[in-house]
Specification:
15 helices, Rossmann fold, about 325 residues, globular, four-stranded parallel sheet, alpha/beta, about 10% strand, single chain
Length: about 325
């Protein structure tokens, strides 16, 4: 029977980090905003690019999950999590406690966001960015059933958006998109910010292939929320095909897609890993690299396919078009 880590301890540490730094891993806001260095923004229209910190945190999540995997099922697991909670009160976050992140990984994820910035500017969009003050949406708290903690995060982010005069958000990932579009209005009074995923905003014909594997085939993985809740499977494929990518459909795709293992990687990393490895096998059978459009899928499947040894390379759509 799968063993689950102490959910309340984990959420407690994440919430402490969220209150202190604006994100559940306790990472410095300037670090998460580093991708924007040297770029120009114009917020006069009230439109902002919202990253939610998910792509930036993805490199650190890999380190975080590896630490949890070592704790899960161990005799000292409970003691370890109690220690982590105590250290969290002293301002030591889980990510930095267990492992450092290779700079090249952080730069990789930052490059994904910079590429979206370039695509938006090329198509004539002007937009602002909240910079180091940008707050995480709280979606993980909602997914895990901690509604009061989620509402706290939602109200904090909403206050910031209102203070900045934000009228419209262009989002990067399906998790932040769905939570802002459909859940915030249920938890926050008079939430009236327009929310659009970048696939809804960008014209598919405005990008070209840019990866060294672009002449190969990409097995398209549909992120669950992107396909089932946002209904963007066709737009996702149209964007890839018009950029010149050759795509293949794996076993189980579109609305019948197979989960990447998230977001339960936080409480049951081994169960999550087994799910991700099964999906890696399906994507590998389709041939070529695996194409995703979500930082959680990128992190989970990338980690699982490396662990398999023979799994496909996993890349984000924004890494292979430009």
């Amino acid at each position: 029977m799968p063993q689950f880590l102490g959910v309340e301890d984990l959420v407690g540490v994440m919430l402490q980090n969220q209150r202190k730094t604006g994100n559940p891993l306790g990472l410095d806001g300037a670090r998460l905003a580093r991708w924007a260095q040297g770029l120009k923004f114009n917020a006069s229209s009230g439109t902002y690019l919202y990253t939610g910190g998910l792509y930036q945190m993805a490199a650190y999540i890999d380190s975080f999950i590896e630490a949890l995997e070592r704790l899960e099922g161990s005799v000292a697991g409970g003691v370890g999590l109690g220690l982590v909670k105590a250290l969290g009160r002293l301002g030591i976050n889980l990510s930095s406690l267990y492992s450092s992140v290779a700079e090249k990984e952080a730069v990789r994820y930052e490059g994904i966001i910079r590429n979206l910035y370039t695509l938006l500017v090329r198509q004539g969009y002007e937009f602002g960015f909240l910079g180091s003050d940008e707050q995480y949406s709280g979606v993980l708290f909602y997914d895990m059933g901690f509604d009061s903690e989620f509402q706290e995060s939602a109200e904090r982010l909403t206050r910031m958006l209102r203070d900045r005069g934000v009228k419209r958000l262009i989002t990067m990932d399906p998790h932040s998109t769905l939570i802002l579009k459909e859940v915030y209005p249920k938890f926050v009074d008079a939430f009236d910010v327009e929310v659009s995923h970048y696939l809804e905003v960008l014209e598919p014909g405005g990008a070209t292939r840019s990866d060294k594997l672009a002449d190969g085939v990409f097995a398209v993985h549909d992120p669950c929320l992107l396909a089932r809740n946002l209904g963007l499977s066709d737009r996702y494929r149209d964007f890839a095909l018009k950029a010149g990518l050759k795509i293949a459909e794996p076993q189980l795709s579109r609305r019948s897609t197979f989960c990447c293992g998230g977001p339960i990687e936080n409480i049951a990393p081994r169960v999550s890993g087994a799910i991700a490895e099964k999906r890696c096998s399906q994507l590998g059978e389709a041939g070529g690299a695996a194409l995703v459009a979500c930082p959680i899928c990128l992190s989970n499947l990338g980690r699982a396919c490396k662990r398999k040894g023979s799994g496909p390379r996993v890349v984000d759509l924004l890494e292979v078009v430009g």
